[in-house]
# Entry
Amino acid sequence: MTRLEDEKVTLELDRYEYGVIFHSLNDKRNAMLRENRATDAVDDVLLKVIRLKEVALGDEEPGREGRRENRGKREKRGWRCHETR
# Structure
């Protein structure tokens, strides 16, 4: 039996789907902060989502906005993220 943390998961997201995931995670984090709950797990996933977009847009340094000249250089519509746990 294969456990989920041993599997690689790939998601292809368009801009709308990326926004839904980003804002949902951010809303969840804000709700947890209001309840004085730990946000470590949500923070980790949110940072992965942010870094994914930066990589997809050709921005190698986290925290910088994507450069417009690199926005159309993706192979397919959406972003891909491969992660092995």
Summary: The two ends are 16 Å apart (CA to CA). The first helix runs from residue 15 to 34.
